[in-house]
Amino acid sequence: MNGLMLQKQLLVSSLIVHADRHHGDTEIVSRRVEGDIHRYTYRDCHRRARQLANALANLGVQPSDRVGTLAWNGYRHMELYYGISGMGAVMHTINPRLHADQIAYIVDHAEDQYLFFDLTFLPLVKAIAGRCKTVKAFIAMTDSAHMPQDSGIACLLCYEDLIEGSSSNYAWPNFDEDTACTLCYTSGTTGNPKGVLYSHRSSLLHTWAAALPDALNCSARDVVLPVVPMFHVNAWGLPYVACMVGAKLVFPGAGLDGRSLYELLEAEQVTFAAGVPTVWQGLLGHLEREGRTFSTLKRTVIGGAACPPAMLQKFQDSYGVEVLHAWGMTELSPLGTIGTMKYRHLTMSREKRCAVQSKQGRAVFGVDMKVVDANGQELPWDGVTSGELLVRGPWVVRNYFRNEGGNPLRIDADAHGWFPTGDIATIDADGFMQITDRSKDVIKSGGEWISSIDIENIAVAHPAIAGAACIAARHPKWDERPLLVAVKRPDARVTTGELLAYFEGKIAKWWMPDAVVFIEAMPMGATGKVLKNQLREAFGDYLLV
Ligand code: AMP
């Protein structure tokens, strides 16, 4: 017997309709690439998203057509989020930090029909325009006064002209909630980038779960600043979450340095911000140098790479900002786990609680996870035994776009499909998952695994160290041994011996790095992760010579 409840398709457009109707005068504030601060409301955003949908229809965009964006976090990008997906087309957010060849490959693979870009990326667009076979026009996200002259791009349109020339009279269409809404390519370090194609349904379910109190805990009383880019897994879903709960949104544009972020956080009274550890490092550095504190910031979600306990402690103990350590992937829309405390953790000592918070957290409802050994056998939740992390759920990828790389799923004895994350993790009895490594980054010394993340976390707690990465270096006796690659803080002095002495008593003796290499700057990837493959190429034989 079926239930007798109304059927309503879960569509992304319903989020902006809700935000307009119930929070119409709540602000969206953006630092623009033109240099100024722009402010308007959800009502304005909704109106312009409808104008954009009309403009796209006039350009001939059909349902399921892919429309690309190369843009910072800002109000025009927000309009594209709703205008493109809302009309039934697929918004393809492109990471501008990728190499131009990779971007050209992605645009071609996705068969993007139009490409919207912020003026910052004009040189990039010029470099790839001739290679984008499917793109009918490039649209500069600016007004006519700021349009580039003599760009050499065959078909260049102006965003504000398109909006101004289009009516706001547009009714969002109703269609199947399984329809694709957004496409996002993973920035894998090997092989071609793979497209993850989210549906309206998966995005809405993810939004509900992400907004929950034990997830991002967002409400209409929050001012949300997503530092995490809208081109990296939909800014972790925040442009959707903010509409669902009616939070004020603050977009930082291209200003991601410590000073610009701090100014915006204070001026707009931000209560909640989200970003990767490298961005927060810049912000904390600024606060320390200038002797500032936060007056309104209450929580920050840190993910995308492991948040070192030293960073967590600094936020909480020095600035009174609660850290939520989260883990996710492009393939998970992205939220998988988040480190919010359970009741019994509240009475723990500060140190013990910090140790729990440093883990990547517990699964949000909707995500099922397990760790398995090399034979696919499930491992115990004892907080010690590590294995490969598998996940499943309604916002986990089933297959990559155009079947790139073949079916990724592992089928278990009960015929359930699980997505292998490529992360190595433990899960404790409370369900807190802790990542110890990427499977391709693990250090296998004499057949035993050493966690590179544990070693890096200790290294960056040393006052002279700004960044650290621990890699597997080939070793004649043990196959692999840990090698620590470190970047010193400006003007700081530390020797190899002093740094290694700092590890004593903090890890097992056999985990101690065999050597330290100091470098000027860490090679960083497009999504704020250290490029360990480059470090392995440069220093993999360091212990052999
Ligand atoms: P991406 O698809 O670019 O978001 O990358 C996903 C990968 O980033 C995961 O598979 C992890 O290896 C890594 N990652 C994400 N969040 C964390 C975290 N909190 N701690 C450690 N690694 C993380």
From TrEMBL:
Annotated Gene3D superfamilies: 3.30.300.30, N-terminal domain of ligase-like (3.40.50.12780)
Residue ranges occupied by any AMP-dependent synthetase/ligase domain in the UniProt entry: 19-401
Could you tell me which InterPro entries the record lists for this protein? AMP-bd_C, AMP-bd_C_sf, AMP-binding_CS, AMP-dep_synth/lig_dom, ANL_N_sf
Gene Ontology biological process:
fatty acid metabolic process
Read off the PANTHER family from this record: ACYL-ACTIVATING ENZYME (PTHR43859), BUTANOATE--COA LIGASE AAE1-RELATED (PTHR43859:SF4)
Q: Which organism is it from?
A: Paraburkholderia diazotrophica
Q: What is this protein called?
A: Fatty-acyl-CoA synthase
Task: Please name the SUPFAM superfamilies in this protein's record.
Answer: Acetyl-CoA synthetase-like
GO MF annotations, alphabetized? ligase activity
Q: What are the residue boundaries of the AMP-binding enzyme C-terminal domain, all occurrences included? A: 455-529
User: Hey, which family's this protein in?
Assistant: Belongs to the ATP-dependent AMP-binding enzyme family.
Instruction: State the UniProt keywords alphabetically.
Output: Fatty acid metabolism, Ligase, Lipid metabolism
